[in-house]
């Protein structure tokens, strides 16, 4: 049992009122840690620490801060195995996935921003009689609020550019998955990052998260999480004129056009649907298939889904672990019941038994990957974000019809299109109302590209230049040429 503490002003400390919350391993139902149940007073302490560290941190040169990012990346890389095991234990995801995706990406987030930052050149705009340049300053103390699906991956995606641009940080990880944020804090302490530059407060969203949103000295909020929470974040922070970045939910489409390479498309659609037990905001949970190949695709898709090894997350051969919690398991199961009520046919899955390697059968939050067909694309299961191992299949006869179905969603985060005709893929992609489209691939990320959604999937973009812009203020300095008067 771990006794996790807040990390404020370079020191680990319990919540001021001593209250705590339990943290469980969803694959074993075992209590693995307690974390502070922080409140406004703890946020106040963190803000004071961050504010007093601000001038020292922002006085470093850009290159010095980039070197810090490289040092953090190296230190995290040495802890790859520790990160992977901790993340797997806290989330129930397979150790192999945690190592390959969560741990690796946490390292590359720091490395990427260090190197991308170094390539920046000053923005200048020449006029006939004057020159303009853009001077960047940090925003100040920023609040980073992150979810449970990719805990360290999504936290470091925000921490790296925030540090690079000279800000001080108060991070609030999900109360369900606090452990790797703690590991990051331990790493920063070992590296002797100046006190107060990075602060970590644990606790419940409506308590400590809300306190962070409301604190007048927190100048920007970068939030990744559910759409409903995003509404609360916007409602609280927007009237205070804080900078806001909202990465919210998705109900992403996978579109299989009639000329798709079926082997690739089936592999890609399975990966898009069920990676991380379907708990990635980019997951393709609605699959639209050209009716001329629907039967063939569906048969192969179901075969491939049945080959997923669901079992003990610590077993290297496991390809799907548990979902995040028993409560979330019940939520996903309620959608399976609803699918049947709505007239859908469950082609596979829908039950709790494991098909893979020995695991804590019967106690963990395991659910077999579930495939449903015969539901209208307007049904609740095909329109609401379920965020679990459940996918609905729909067929279409024309591409115009497919586009209408895809774009009828209130979400607009991502999608993938599968076709051997790349021009057709481009045409289709450009008509989709989403922030990201992959053609013949899924979650293939270049960290320089804009990441984010439209409609109810969010406001703003992260990645490359967009992250640097979010975590800095820009002053246009216009200097008139004295000779031109
Ligand atoms: O998200 P929440 P949860 C979706 C998915 C999932 C749903 C709920 O549909 O089922 O969101 O997941 C903090 N003020 N996604 O419950 O509640 C909270 O403590 C300030 C999509 O985890 O949005 C956590 O740190 N903060 C998503 C963070 O917000 C508050 C990934 C996210 O929690 C708060 C995960 C408040 N009032 C879930 N209330 C994606 N798009 O990546 C909560 N929080």
| Overall pLDDT score | 97
Q: How many helices in DSSP terms?
A: 15
Our estimate of the beta-strand percent is: 15-25%
Structural class estimated from helices and strands: alpha/beta
How many domains is the backbone divided into? 2
CATH class of the largest domain: Alpha Beta
Bound molecules: ligand TXE
Poorly predicted segments: none
CATH H-level name of the largest domain... which superfamily? Aldehyde Dehydrogenase, Chain A, domain 1
Tell me which CATH architecture of the largest domain applies here: 3-Layer(aba) Sandwich
Largest β sheet strand count, sense and barrel closure: 7 strands, mixed
Q: Measured on Cα atoms, how large is the radius of gyration?
A: 23 Å
Number of beta-strand segments: 23
Spatial ordering of strands, largest sheet? 15-16-17-14-13-19-20
Proportion in helices: 25-40%
Q: The CATH topology of the largest domain is what?
A: Aldehyde Dehydrogenase, Chain A, domain 1
What is the overall silhouette?
A: globular
Q: Kindly report how far apart the N and C termini lie.
A: 73 Å
What are the main properties of this structure?
2 domains, 15 helices, 485 residues, 7-stranded mixed β-sheet, 6-stranded mixed β-sheet, Aldehyde Dehydrogenase, Chain A, domain 1, alpha/beta
């Amino acid at each position: 049992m771990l006794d996790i503490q807040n990390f404020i002003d370079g020191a680990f400390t319990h919540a001021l009122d001593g209250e705590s919350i339990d943290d469980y391993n969803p694959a074993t139902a075992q209590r693995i840690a307690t974390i502070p149940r922080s409140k406004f007073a703890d946020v106040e302490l963190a803000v004071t620490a961050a504010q007093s560290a601000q001038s020292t941190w922002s006085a470093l040169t850009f290159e010095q801060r980039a070197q810090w990012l490289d040092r953090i990346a190296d230190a995290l890389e040495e802890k790859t195995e520790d990160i992977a095991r901790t993340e797997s234990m806290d989330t129930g995801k397979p150790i192999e996935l945690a190592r390959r995706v969560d741990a690796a990406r946490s390292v590359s987030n720091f490395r990427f921003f260090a190197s991308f930052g170094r390539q920046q050149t000053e923005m200048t705009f020449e006029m006939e009689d004057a020159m303009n340049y853009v001077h960047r300053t940090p925003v100040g103390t920023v609040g980073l609020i992150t979810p449970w699906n990719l805990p360290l991956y999504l936290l470091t995606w925000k921490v790296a550019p925030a540090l690079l641009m000279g800000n001080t940080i108060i991070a609030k990880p999900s109360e369900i998955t606090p452990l790797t944020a703690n590991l990051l804090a331990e790493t920063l302490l070992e590296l002797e990052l100046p006190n107060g530059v990075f602060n970590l407060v644990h606790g419940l969203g409506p308590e400590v998260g809300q306190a962070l949103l409301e604190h007048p000295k927190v100048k920007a909020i970068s939030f990744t999480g559910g759409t409903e929470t995003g509404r609360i974040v916007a409602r609280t922070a927007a009237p205070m004129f804080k900078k806001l970045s909202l990465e919210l939910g998705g109900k992403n489409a996978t579109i299989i056009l009639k000329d798709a390479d079926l082997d690739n498309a089936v592999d890609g659609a399975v990966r898009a649907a069920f990676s991380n037990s379907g708990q990635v905001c980019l997951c393709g949970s609605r699959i639209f298939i050209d009716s001329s190949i629907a039967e063939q695709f569906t048969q192969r898709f179901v075969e491939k889904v049945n080959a997923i090894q669901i079992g003990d997350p610590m077993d290297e051969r496991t390809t799907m672990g548990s979902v995040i919690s028993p409560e979330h398991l019940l939520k996903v199961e309620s959608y399976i019941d609803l699918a049947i009520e709505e007239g859908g046919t469950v082609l596979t899955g829908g039950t709790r038994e494991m098909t893979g390697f020995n695991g804590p059968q019967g106690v963990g939050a395991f659910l077999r990957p579930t495939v449903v067909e015969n539901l209208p694309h307007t049904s609740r299961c095909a329109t609401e974000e379920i965020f679990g191992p459940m996918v609905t299949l729909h067929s279409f006869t024309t591409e115009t019809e497919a586009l209408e179905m895809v774009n009828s969603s209130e979400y607009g985060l991502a999608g993938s299109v599968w076709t051997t005709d790349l021009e057709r893929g481009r045409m289709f992609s450009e008509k989709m109302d989403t922030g990201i489209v992959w053609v013949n691939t899924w979650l293939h990320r270049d960290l320089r590209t804009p990441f984010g959604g439209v409609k109810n999937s969010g406001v703003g973009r992260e990645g490359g230049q967009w992250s640097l812009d979010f975590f800095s203020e820009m002053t246009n300095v216009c200097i008139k040429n004295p000779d031109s008067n």
